[in-house]
Amino acid sequence: MKITCVEPLGISRDKFEALGQHYSAMGHTFAYHLDRREDEETLAARMADADVVVVSNIKLSATLLGCCQRLKYLSVAFTGLDHIDLQYCAQHNIEVQNAAGYSTTAVSELAVGMMLDLLRQVTHLDGTIRQGGSRGTLLGRELRGKVVGLVGTGAIGTATAKLLIAFGAKVIAYSRTQRHEVEALGVEYCSLDDLLRRADIVSLHTPLTADTRHLVGADQLRLMRPTALLINTARGPVTDIEAVAAALREGTIAGAAFDVFEQEPPLPSEHPLLHAPNCLLTPHVAFATEESFAARAEIVFGHVDQYLAR
Question: N or C terminus of the chain: which is more exposed, having fewer CB within 10 Å?
Answer without folding.
Answer: C
